[in-house]
Amino acid sequence: MKIAILPGDGIGTEIVAEAVKVLNVLDLPFETETALVGGAAYAAHGHPLPESTLALAKAADAVLFGAVGDWKYDTLERSLRPEQAILGLRKHLGLFANLRPALCYEELTHASSLKPELVAGLDILIIRELTGDIYFGQPRGRRTAVDGHFPGAEEAFDTMRYSRPEIERIAHVAFQAARKRRGKVTSVDKANVLETFQFWRDVVTEVHAQYPDVELDHMYVDNAAMQLVKAPKKLDVVVTGNMFGDILSDEAAMLTGSIGMLPSASLDRNNKGLYEPSHGSAPDIAGQGIANPLATILSAAMMLRYSLQQPAAAERIESAVKAVLAAGLRTGDIWSEGTRRVGTREMGDAVVAAI
Amino acid sequence: MKIAILPGDGIGTEIVAEAVKVLNVLDLPFETETALVGGAAYAAHGHPLPESTLALAKAADAVLFGAVGDWKYDTLERSLRPEQAILGLRKHLGLFANLRPALCYEELTHASSLKPELVAGLDILIIRELTGDIYFGQPRGRRTAVDGHFPGAEEAFDTMRYSRPEIERIAHVAFQAARKRRGKVTSVDKANVLETFQFWRDVVTEVHAQYPDVELDHMYVDNAAMQLVKAPKKLDVVVTGNMFGDILSDEAAMLTGSIGMLPSASLDRNNKGLYEPSHGSAPDIAGQGIANPLATILSAAMMLRYSLQQPAAAERIESAVKAVLAAGLRTGDIWSEGTRRVGTREMGDAVVAAI
Ligand SMILES: CC(C)[C@H](C(=O)O)[C@@H](O)C(=O)O
Ligand SMILES: CC(C)[C@H](C(=O)O)[C@@H](O)C(=O)O
């Protein structure tokens, strides 16, 4: 088994180093190869996703990704900016299924913006379609408007679109995930306004016929944004498109109050995947050794479960993380009175020790 | 001055009746005319926005709107569903500027999902563009995909678009509103992915040059969804497109915990407007006399301020609402131990008495 390691920018290097340390202690038959991505790759090779990095990612069985982005690249033209690397990897690797658990750890309930009773025990799985929708739809660009409110004016436009097989495959992922959880799928759309999402609702409903044991409900995206705040624990699996999923998965992550703890998986149709923390590259604290490596360590656990068929090893990591939290170790982002503040490396070492 | 009264469906009739009662006690020179809209109009005339209703709304100086929608119309084809009325009114009346305050009343802080210290004193104004974006962009529909992941498959699509003058005019509304508030505008976009919103960012930045006294920052929509949960009080005026505004304004409203208190205004370029509560038609409690009429009463106050040039009268209503809250009166949605539970009519009467 081969794992491509793409640390990226900002805190990426530090947090990925800890995850690799944890993987290495498990004594599993894999090899790793590291490559530059994002701003770091642009700086070295003039492109955020160099051919060699893409080739490595394609050849590997799984990709462990840190984070990309730094203010110093903000002025580059869009096609050269760090985030193009992540969009390019999703597209070229066909990573259509993004799994984003929003989990509230008992010890960290207090860190949430929400009242403890609303988030204690929270366990939502957001499944975001990741290679379609308005992210990749063509045509897009700038032009002169020929109709609308101001014909003749300069305008910019994008195309939202979903095809039947794209919706079907992500719906299957959601229903299958729900079977292993609490058996409930909430499909989020905007069927009252958008053709794309009326179609989404129709196709999800059709696929549901194959899963009579799973409960399905449909929710408009504006209502979903409200229900996440009002009663998040009523949700189990949430499935939605790329754009709505971008917004709702971040909202849900922030609800837990501990986004530094949340992993993610982006899978292709053969369960090959890219694994990355839900948080960003945090350039403001990069290089200080204070970033929380747990989201990346837990992403490595997801990698073992989904792409490398090592569920027992995944559980060992997850249990070790719980043990470390129970022992009171905290990086700054999740620290509270009465717990012990540790740095990135010390946190990684503690997980290794707990394994 | 002429006010078109469109109560709509569900609790619409009950809550609008209270707002009209409050308006009448102010002894101002206006006349009202009432018409059916939404499901009620469909049931009577076969269309959610009959010609006669639209003509009345066009002829009036302002529209006071209740809410539309009921489960019994869910199976109608989309063009006949109640929400088409609100989309049609926005479009035909040119109501491009939607102002949605998210305000947390001191007495109701506890009703929020968020910890009190995060929402106490919250006062955000979300300005949502309301006649453009993917809501109205053409072309849209279903077709056979010619490219993308599954050429030849059935697909549905929509067009997101914004023209320069559309962005300019909503940006002006935002900067001018900020001048009367805390002087800060946060423009929300997805410039890292969408052509439409890179253009949005460019044009908002250009318009900002005319408002050097106002602070402007740009935020990606996923980050905005997080910041609303994490630190909502850092925001002042938030300006964004129709689709993102739909999601974020509802999220922000729910954060306050008292969506039954939140009014909204939708203005055209001459400050003619449609005023409606931020909440929906709540068919589950319709006809029971328990709905909270305050959002609608406060919408009437916004109407007096923005469309009817009666700021003093608007303030009388707003002060009366505060007095009623201070006196401990609460409808069921905002009730808590130690306060007095009242019905829709009793709440309206109390506001009238306080005026
Ligand atoms: C960086 C950006 C292009 C990306 C997205 O919008 O998908 C990010 O927000 C994410 O969710 O991974
Ligand atoms: C009913 C629906 C079409 C509408 C919208 O999406 O604009 C509603 O959600 C709103 O925000 O007023």
Key features of this structure:
homodimer; binds 3-isopropylmalic acid; ten-stranded mixed beta sheet; 12 helices; 2 domains; 355 residues; Isopropylmalate Dehydrogenase
Description:
Two copies of one chain form a homodimer. Chain A is built from twelve helices and 14 strands. With 355 residues, chain A is of the alpha/beta class. The first copy, chain A, folds into two domains: 1-99 and 263-355, Isopropylmalate Dehydrogenase (3-Layer(aba) Sandwich); 113-256, Isopropylmalate Dehydrogenase (3-Layer(aba) Sandwich), CATH 3.40.718. In chain A, helix 1 crosses helix 10 (294-306), helix 8 (221-230) runs parallel beside helix 9 (242-256) and helix 11 (311-326) crosses helix 12. The radius of gyration of chain A is 20 Å and the shape is globular. The mean pLDDT of chain A is 97. Chains A and B meet through strand 7, helix 6, helix 7, helix 8 and helix 9 of A and strand 7, helix 6, helix 7, helix 8 and helix 9 of B. Strand 7 of chain A pairs antiparallel with strand 7 of chain B. Bound molecules: 3-isopropylmalic acid (IPM) (2 copies). One 3-isopropylmalic acid (IPM) sits between chains A (83, 86-87, 246) and B (192-193, 222).
Radius of gyration of chain A: 20 Å
Total helical segments of chain A? 12
Helix proportion range of chain A: 25-40%
- Residue windows where pLDDT falls under 50 for at least 5 positions of chain A: none
| CATH fourth-tier homologous superfamily of the largest domain in chain A | Isopropylmalate Dehydrogenase
Strand percentage of chain A lies at 15-25%
Ligands present: 3-isopropylmalic acid
Strand order of the largest sheet of chain A: 2-1-3-12-11-4-5-10-8-9
Q: Which oligomerization state do the chains in this entry correspond to?
A: homodimer
